[in-house]
Amino acid sequence: MRARTLLPAALAATLLALTACGSGEDSASVGDAGASPSKAPSPAESPVGSAEGGSGAEGRKLPEALNFTATTVDGKPFDAKTLAGKPTVLWFWAPWCPTCKGQAAETAKVAADYQGKANVVGVAGLDKNAAMRAFVSDTGTGSFSHLSDEKGEVWKRFEVTQQSHYVILDKNGTTVYEGVLPGGKGLAEKLAAVTG
Predict the structure, then answer these.
(1) Domains in the chain: boundaries
(2) Band (60; pLDDT cuts 50, 70, 90)
(3) pLDDT in tens, 124-136
(4) Backbone phi and psi for residue 67, each to the nearest 5 degrees, phi listed first
(5) Which tens digits make up the pLDDT trace of 20-49?
């Protein structure tokens, strides 16, 4: 009889430990139907400034999601901590993808409309840098930064497994939406919801 009492208690304790109940971390994504749950790194924070997490000039905390560096398609260094404090759209695309080409005009329009209020960054992958530069030139999306993620490091960081994918972070670096937006439609409304 004692084993019957202990077994459910042990199972409950194990389940609570596995689900991190009470940890204060919320992994649910805010968005609409069709949006995937949040896959970005947890919003654990470290101070902006040094690589070791020293305090930055403004004393802001750096969201873990923005704790990475990359190179742009133009070969310039890119530090994601510069995105901290504003909502950010990460647009994951591939140069040969017709769906991505179809999203380019709307994404560029949103980047222009929200300049100064939010960040829009393209994250190119699944091809070589020359093809990525050609895509930016051909689609007229050179008004905002595009990362050359040939090795897929940023894609892996956000667990993106397909091109033509958007990840929207709020000003605290928490993922509030991720998914596909055909033609980029709905991107402006989703960004408006986090810019206030």
Answers:
(1) 68-195
(2) low
(3) 999 999 999 999 9
(4) -95, 65
(5) 333 333 333 333 333 433 444 433 333 333
For every residue of 9-25, DSSP letters joined together read HHHHHHHHHHHTTTS--
Burial of 47 (0-12, 13-18, 19+ CB in 10 A): middle
178 beta partners = 167
Rounded Cα gap, residues 59 and 25, in angstroms:
23
Q: Which of 75, 111, 92, 67 is nearest to 181 (CA)?
A: 92
pLDDT at 13 over 60: no
- Fold topology of 68-195: Glutaredoxin (3.40.30)
Overall average pLDDT of the 65-72 stretch: 95
Residue 23 to residue 11: CA distance in whole angstroms: 19
| Torsion region of 188: left, alpha or beta (phi above 0 gives left; psi -120 to 50 gives alpha) | alpha
Rounded Cα distance between 154 and 170, Å, is: 18
